[in-house]
Amino acid sequence: MAHRLFLLFADTALLYASLGITLLIRYEAGEFSIRLSSHLLPFSLLFLGWLLVFFIADLYSLRLISSPKALLQRLSSALFINLVLSVFAFYLFGPLFSLAPKTNLFIFGVLSFLLLGFFRLLTLRFSPRGRVRVLFIGTSRSLPATLSYLKDHPHLGYHTASHIPDPSLKKLQETFSEHAPDLVVFCGDAPPSSSFFGRAGLPFSPRISFLPFQNFYVTLFEKVSLPDIDEAWVMGCVMRQDRAYDIIKRSVDILLSLPLLILFSLPMALLATVVRATSPGKVLFSQKRMGRGSHPFTLYKFRTMYAGSEGPLWTERNDPRITPFGRFLRFTHLDELPQLFNILRGDISFTGPRPERYELAEKYRALPYYDLRHLVKPGLTGWAQINFRPSASLEEAEEKLAYDLYYIAYRSFTLDLVLFVKTLRHFFFSHS
Q: Is residue 338 part of a domain?
């Protein structure tokens, strides 16, 4: 969090610096204060939008930006979108501020890219690399991949000091003496107790943090480690009830879906006409999906496949069953507009695990703890959907389950807001 706040304040300062330099380049020194006062308010309003786009583009995530190339690609895409939005903003609202800064906006865009890019490359270069020394105790099926990930991403700030699969008193004493870990992560049934550390003569002080592997894993990957789910974790999910959250969330679903249905009624009518005109068959595609409590319901979408299509339950890349207009609908996600009816009716919410086709859900029940995803109402957009590609196998469905269970375990209005913002990022920055 501190890292994100630092970047947020730095970006804000650099945007204002870019504006100041732009005005110094464009105008005489005597005009600077007058020009600055006329530009300050409209550009301050623009900067709020710019920072939101930066957040949507995940420019504040160390985990996702691991190389200079990835950083500059995300930054250039975000700045391009910001400049386009700024042009529209000044076209629509420029007369309110008596500004039409075409040249200024171009110079500002170039300067902001140079300053923000240079600063971000510096923070990536000098970010804390392995400052937190981590000692892993015990074993987990997810541990080898975690250790490999930490080795490949030192900018996250963690360094694997040691791993002790089967801890003994002598081995622990040697490890603490040699590596002086800052964080002890215990896996499976290996959590050390304070009395054990006291008897062993090991330092048990506030300087050293202790964390279960599951907690460390979800912080690192924003998904759960399925092999490390135990009965206590399951009971926490099953017994967790937040009546106020459920009531407010349902109210928001109704208050948003009804005006959206009215707003999109004409576009939906036009899309329905094109679907009917481009291929024979029904306009709407209805399918039996599994909802909350494993109860079935009918989900509606615009039809994107040829009528009577047969084939695998999973869709595939370049699937011949999809119509040309259907590809456009899927790419833009416009095929999902009829699901506003499902939201208004209460079958699904705006956020939650995506409802699976009933036949697929029956297959996926072979996965451990799969039915936990039915503890909550499914959603139009889900944590697994925006963090992982559509599943085309049981193994990929297991990976998506890890994300869905993360959402269920940590669901809140804050997480719903993050999910909404990440959905925007997925829509604008990724169509893979």
A: yes
Asked if residues 349 and 379 have their Cβ atoms less than 8 Å apart, the reply is yes
* pLDDT tens, position by position, 303-320: 999 887 766 666 667 788
Torsion (CA) 42, 43, 46, 47 in degrees, nearest 10: -140
Q: pTM to 2 decimals?
A: 0.80
The answer to whether residues 160 and 147 touch, using CB atoms and an 8 Å cutoff, is: yes
Is residue 376 within 8 Å of 347, Cβ to Cβ?
no
Question: What type of residue is 24?
Answer: L
Residues 23, 115 within the same domain: yes
Q: Which amino acid would we find at residue 391?
A: S
Structure-token pair, residue 98: 């008596």
Structural domain contains residue 232: no
Look at phi and psi of residue 308 and say left if phi exceeds 0, alpha if psi is from -120 to 50, else beta.
left
Residue 111 lies in a domain: yes
C-alpha span between 373 and 161 (Å, rounded) = 36
The C-alpha atoms of residue 382 and residue 302 are separated, in whole angstroms, by 20
- Residue 202 located in a structural domain: yes
Query: CA angle at residue 31 from 26 to 33, to 5 degrees?
Result: 105
Same domain, 38 and 180: no
DSSP3 helix / strand / coil % (the chain, rounded to 5) = 60, 10, 30
Place of tokens 């507009």: 337
Q: Single out the residue in 82, 103, 125 at which a domain terminates.
A: 125
| Per-residue tokens: 24 | 């110094």
What's the DSSP call for residue 375?
G
- Note the Cα 104 to chain centre separation in Å: 34
Task: Tell me which H or E stretch contains 103.
Answer: helix 102-125
DSSP 129: -
Quick: pLDDT tens for 201-210. 665 566 778 8
Residue 132 main-chain phi, psi, to 5 deg: -90, 110
Tens of pLDDT along 46-66? Answer: 999 999 889 888 788 766 666
DSSP state of 357: B
With a pLDDT cut of 70, the percent of the chain lying above it is 89
